[in-house]
Every structure is written in C-alpha cells, then in structure tokens.
Amino acid sequence: MIRFFLAICLLATSALAEPIRIKDLVEFDGVRGNDLVGYGLVVGLNGTGDGLRNAPFTEEIMANLLERLGANVTGEEFRPKNVAAVFVTAQLPPFARSGSRIDVTVSAIGDAKSLLGGTLVMTPLNGADGQIYAVAQGTIIAGGVSATGQAASVTQGVPTAGVIPSGARVEREVDFDFTGLSVLRLALKAADFTTAERIERAVNAEFGRRVAQMQDSGTVAVDIGATGMESPAHVLARIERIPVEPETRARVVVDQRSGTIVMGADVRISRVAVAQGNLTLRVEESPLVVQPNPFAEGETVVVPRSNASIGKTGTGLAEISGGTDLAEVVAGLNALGVAPHDMIDILKSINAAGALHAEFVVN
Hints:
- By secondary structure, the chain is an alpha+beta fold.
- The protein folds into three domains: 18-30 and 176-244, Aspartate Aminotransferase, domain 1 (Alpha-Beta Complex); 34-170, no CATH class; 251-362, no CATH class.
- 16% of the residues lie in helices and 40% in strands.
- The protein is built from five helices and 25 strands.
- The strands form seven sheets. It has a six-stranded antiparallel β-barrel.
C-alpha cells in the first residue's frame, strides 16, 4: 500500500494584507438571525423508516397528526415502515417578513435508515420563546445514499439527514425597532484592540467628526445622532463599506490528520535547539552593534542577526538565514523530507519550551 503524506505550510504575510470592509469584520447590534426548531414526520419512504418498536414516539406523533386530520386511530395498531420522526431546524434571517421563505434542515431522530425520497409533513418551527415563527413542508433532498443486500450493505454520505431549499414559510416577524436605535454597536468577530481602534478612526474620518468610540477590544459604539443622519439604516449602509486593515494575532494552526500547517507572518521563535531521532534543529541569536562614523550624525543601534541550522544524519547541513522566522524553519524541515507528524511534534516541543511566540492551535 502506498501512503501519501501531505505537508503544507501557508504563510499569511501582513505586509501584503489588503483593507477589508467593516461589514466583513464586525456584527451589527440587532442585525442577527434567530434559530428555529421543530419536530415532525417524514412520509413516503421506501421501507427505510423508523421501526416503531424501537421508536415508539414516532407512532405517537403519527397518531396525533392523524387525529388532527380527523382520523381516529385510538387503540389501533399500525406498523408502517415508510414513516420517520425528524427534527427540523432553520435560521430566521434578520428582518425576515411574513410570507418569505427560508431553508430548513431535516434530521432523523429514530432508527430510520434513510430519508431519501421522503416528504416532510407540515411542521411548526418554534423560537427560543416558544412562539411559532415558521411552518415547514416539502420534499427532502437527502445528503447521501444507502444500498443493502442480503449479505452486505454500503452507505455513502449521511442519508438520514437532508435539506429542503425554501422549505419553510415565515408566519411571524421578530419584534425589533431598528429605526429607534440611538446608538449602534459594532461587535468585532475577532476581538482586537488595534483593529477596534482602526475602525473607530476610519468611521470618524468618514463622517468628519467624532461619532464612534471604542468601548473595548470587541465593541465600537456609533452615536446615530452625531452622524447627522436620521435613519440608522443609512448610517449602517455608509459604515459597512469603509475599508479597514485588520490586525491579527500571531497564530500557528496545525491539523494532525492532514499534516497541514498554517501560520501568520508575525510568528517568531527564540533561541532553541531541538533533537528528534537523527534530526537536530538549532536557532541562535547573534545581535550586531552598528555605530555611526566618526563626526557623523546618528546613534548606535543593535541589529538582530539570527542563524538557524537543521541537520540530519547522512544529509549534510542546511543553513537558513533569519531563523527567527518560523516559516523558514518549516521550509527547511520540508526540504529535508521530514514527515508531517514529526514536524508537528517538533512544533509542539518548541511551543512547550516557551520558544514559540504565537498562539498554538492543534486540530
């Protein structure tokens, strides 16, 4: 069996970062969706429904539904195999109006083998307050396929879950007076003091006066009255188009399953030496003092100078300049043919030694 190893090092260079619209960096106060949930029945399955002995709640739901439709099944025993009990979930978009349609996700809660070809019967969707905000119904598009024989079976994807595009109609609107807001808060998706300050300065520069104030690393408040515009919607439309260059934390993210390594340009490592098997990694700092010429204007400065060496038995020695840049160290390890999992172990050791100056995330 041939095994393929994947080792990818991606470097996000902040010098090449482009300004991002504020609408892509923040969430606006009050402009949010609401989760909906309900439970119902899927009918029309080809013998892949719930086994009612193992899922008695399916029979109860079906009996209640038939009684609401005028069919009295009290005391009757029925064992259909084309019915499945499901949970139905959806998200009510902000400012959704009555009559608009939204997508729903349907998931089996019993022992049904597949929802392929089934039809969801009219199902009310409730919000967190218990009120009904939408009603779902329609044909399910299952996310997989399953085939079963006498001695074997095969399943691809997840046939017990599916979606109904535009499968629910909004029946109730969320009560929220957006036009009555006097202060609009911008909540950063990634809290950062530098990014919040840049948003504050960019918004104030756009309106030519102080209308925005940073409250913390994740919130910037905008005074609607100070903007000179009466409608918060117009203020929001003007703010969300303003470009801002976000600041990101130094972070290293590794995926052990695929061997993927993603790091930012600001990731640095201090003086460290790591030995693993027949591999030796050494990073040293040799700062250089530079003085101005005699009688020349200037001041003495210390210029950082780093040297990193990566050695492996039988492969010679690879010299890398600027070894404090972790991206170059990883590139050198890649050049020596280090396996992805060994490379991740080396990064873990560097982080455990306190020499990796970045947030280390392992998936």
